[in-house]
Design a protein that fits this description.
Number of strands: 9
Number of helices: 5
Main location: cytoplasm
CATH architecture: 3-Layer(aba) Sandwich
InterPro entries: Ade_phspho_trans, PRTase-like, PRTase_dom, UPRTase/APRTase
Protein name: Adenine phosphoribosyltransferase
Largest sheet: 5 strands, parallel
Pathway: Purine metabolism; AMP biosynthesis via salvage pathway; AMP from adenine: step 1/1
Order of helices and strands: HEEHHEHEEEEHEE
CATH class: Alpha Beta
Strand content: 25-35%
Low-confidence stretches: none
Strand order of the largest sheet: 4-3-7-8-9
Shape: globular
Mean pLDDT: 95
CATH topology: Rossmann fold
Organism: Nonlabens xylanidelens
Length: about 170
């Protein structure tokens, strides 16, 4: 499937989660086995030969394709979650959203300094979430090889906030 075909599986939901925001719903993409497989292959394509040890999925929609990507890359999968959802010793990073603030956490021992990491989330908007994820990876001593997104909202210029030039997004709005 090409990107034009894959974009037909994204549904616009106006005024969600707040007035004035158009939410990009990936539910139809998840419901199609063929579209899901095509998206997974598109997401991992630039990273197949990058020796990815760990795919990080950002809560919660980043978990969905993050797991599929980890399987396809023969890599470990690690979750970055909202506060209070992970056991053990954690590290946290607060960040700005396009409509507020939030915090991400990761288990401190989930990454090692030898790990090459691919950070995945469903949408790149302002870049705050992805930048917070990068900060958490850096705190563990691991190396971020790149980022992977299903959707990039180009008008918000989130890519500008990220330190790593390897930002790969499938669909652009």
């Amino acid at each position: 499937m090409n990107n034009t075909t894959l974009s037909k599986f994204i549904k616009d939901i106006p005024n969600f989660p707040k007035e004035g925001i158009v939410f990009k719903d990936i539910s139809p993409l998840l419901a199609s086995k063929e579209a899901r497989e095509s998206m997974t292959q598109s997401l991992i394509a630039p990273y197949k030969d990058k020796n990815i040890d760990v795919v990080i999925g950002i809560e919660s929609r980043g978990f969905l394709f993050g797991m599929l990507m980890a399987d396809a890359l023969n890599a470990k999968f690690v979750m970055m979650r909202k506060p209070g959802k992970l056991p053990g010793e954690i590290i946290s990073q607060e960040y700005q959203l396009e409509y507020g603030t939030d915090t991400l956490e990761i288990q401190k021992d989930s990454l090692s300094s030898r790990d090459n990491v691919l950070i995945h989330d469903d949408v790149l908007a302002t870049g705050g979430t992805a930048a917070a994820a990068l900060s958490l990876v850096e705190q563990t001593g691991a190396t971020t090889v790149g980022y992977s997104f299903i959707i990039e909202l180009d008008f918000l210029k989130g890519k500008d906030l990220l330190k790593n030039p390897n930002v790969h997004s499938i669909l652009h709005y």
